[in-house]
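REQUEST FORM: STRUCTURE PREDICTION
Request ID: SP-0412
Submitted by: Lab K.M.
Chain count: 1
Length (residues): 535
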Amino acid sequence: MSQDARRDEENNTQRRAQVLGLQYIDTSNVVEPKLYKDLLTNEELYSLKVIPILYDKSHILFGMTNTTSQQTMKMLVQRFLDQRVSFGLISDIGYRNYMKLYDPPKQVVYQDIALNTAGSQSLIEKVSAMLREIKPDDMLAYLVEQAHNLEASDIHMECQRENVRIRFRIDGVLHPIGNLAFDRYRTLLAVVASAGNISAADENAQQGHISEDVKMADGRLVKVNVRLETVPTVNGTDVVMRLFNMRADNYTLDRLGLSPEERTVLDAIIAKPSGLVLAVGPTGSGKTTTLYSILNSLNNVERKIITVEDPVEFQFPGIVQIPVNTQAEGNDGSFAAKLRAMLRLDPDIVMVGEIRDNDTAKTALQASLTGHLVLSTFHASSAAAALTRLEDIIGQNPLFVSAIRLVMAQRLVRRLDDAIKQPYPATPAELNTIKSVLDTLPAEFQKPDITNLQLFKPGTSPENPYGFKGQLALREQFMMNGPIRALLETTNQVISAQMIEEAAIKSGMLTMLQKGILKVIAGETTLEEVYRVIG
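STATUS: Completed
RESULT:
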């Protein structure tokens, strides 16, 4: 509270004391207030709304607030019969400041989470105990801060029968962090809902976005920037928060781990930006990161770049970014409506957060035919399946072949920690599995020699008990040329994903499984990890 505001409150309190015929006590002038902790307990000070200001053998002066009752005053006179008891009116802020001296706030010691403790019962108990003590705003900030420190991608809050389980997704795998009782979770959910502009009581699934700075009890300032998903379950409302990394230097092509062939294709698109580029994969596969990296590489003063996103995950200087609420009723809230509006702003490059419906798909295809580069994400299991799913949405359309320039699908697998990974000779079963995949590589591809093949498994260390560190992308991609173009232009039959994949392989595409096996042979990941992610 500012000095002027404190002065105003003291003046108002003084006027009330005069009206009530009471002594006024200005506690703002007390430099070193004395505490008389033997007179009343802290619980009594809270419930009675009084503070002992002066005390000796013959006299007690109590500071009372405007809410102190006459019954309380009579009770104190009867309780301290050996002394003369008098009362003076003090301000509410004066009362609160005294209570901070009688009952100082508990010093919060935030439990830092390390990778080697994530998931351990000891950590779960410590974090759970700490979450019971801190403010709801601090709970949100703490969870986001710790998730960032561990480079987690998501925070999951899951309502179970007994309590609410909190887990972090680290390198694609969930790790338990702590538990919350339902009464504490309700206060946290209220904070999350308020910050994300959603309803904590809604019976439908909701989406939101939180972007705010939270000052924690120890003075730390935490930037909370998450995408919010909530869904009611049988035990309560579950929440998943996807963290957005706020560093612009993470969105560059050099950080995507592209192979020379993949980088050559993207460099060609950047050199001549036109057509439709689709990034395909499930949620959490890095599609948006890939498209942001392409946008960042294209961003210069000579181009106008506009995006329409739900929500805007990262703000780039020099790029016009339009948020869209896809939950809003009516066409004005749709990607297609915003996309048509942005095309009237004369952009060179546009990005559509996701193609979800017929209208958006057709508008994106038409825009890509008029000289624009259109980037978008799409949910499909593979690059080939993306074309068949797109055809399901818009039907057979001659725009397909001319509009689409690149389709790339990707998955993220955990990368072995090079410092602790353990070599071992491949077993006969593993060799058979690897050989069966290598035999599907194009004839012109230089296959690696797997004689006396040495593979690697995750090791352990005090700092990293899991043996993995970070993630790497497995990609498959094809351009709309060669056998794929011929297939789509000449056939009159229904085209399956398998037919498209076979044509793409003839064009030189390596599948995600083939890329994964090559990563296994190179010692970057494990067979189990590749099949866990790709199937």
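NOTES: The radius of gyration is 32 Å.
Reviewed by: T.R.
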